């Protein structure tokens, strides 16, 4: 029984020890390249995966109930904090979407715009004269 408790403690310590660099590593990689996962999403994912592992370890008899409860409450708190932070960042952010929409609008404008026959400048739809050289635009005359 003493041996069992010792093994369980070591297992819990190992889980915590392994989690530390994983969390730090994800944060570090996000600093360099954050187009896949946001920091809060990564935190949420790590916490949820860790919770699942704790659950499995407990069911497999690797954790005693005391360790299980303390680990679970700790990880649940972390997961909830990450979830809240994630929701907050989603509702507050969206700068990428705004940028994408602006780029799409500009591309659509270039496609549907009227090119000047004299200088090839692409004018906004409905322009009567070229914004660059003042040449009359055929499309406006026809329309
Ligand atoms: Zn022109």
Question: What does this protein structure show overall?
Answer:
By secondary structure, the protein is mainly alpha-helical. It folds into two domains: 2-93; 97-142, no CATH class. Helices cover 72% and strands 3% of the residues. It contains five helices and two strands; from the N terminus they run H-H-H-H-E-E-H. Strands 1-2 form a two-stranded antiparallel ribbon. The longest helix has 31 residues, at 2-32. The chain is rod-shaped. It starts with a helix and ends with a helix. Mean pLDDT is 77; it is low at 139-143. The structure holds zinc ion.
List the helices and strands and how they pair.
Elements: H1 2-32, H2 39-59, H3 65-92, H4 95-112, E1 114-115, E2 122-123, H5 138-142
Antiparallel strand pairs: 1-2
Q: How would you sum up the global shape? A: rod-shaped
> Runs with pLDDT <50, length 5+?
139-143
Number of helices: 5
Task: State which percent range the strand residues make up.
Answer: under 5%
Q: Summarize the biggest pleated sheet.
A: 2 strands, antiparallel
Q: Tell me how many strands there are.
A: 2
Question: Structural class of the secondary structure composition?
Answer: mainly alpha
Task: Summarize the helix and strand pattern as letters.
Answer: HHHHEEH
Mean pLDDT: 77
In which range does the helix fraction lie? over 70%
The largest sheet has its strands arranged as 1-2
- Chemical compounds bound to the protein: zinc ion
Rg calculated over all Cα atoms: 29 Å
Number of domains: 2
The termini sit apart by 90 Å
Q: Which oligomeric state applies?
A: single chain
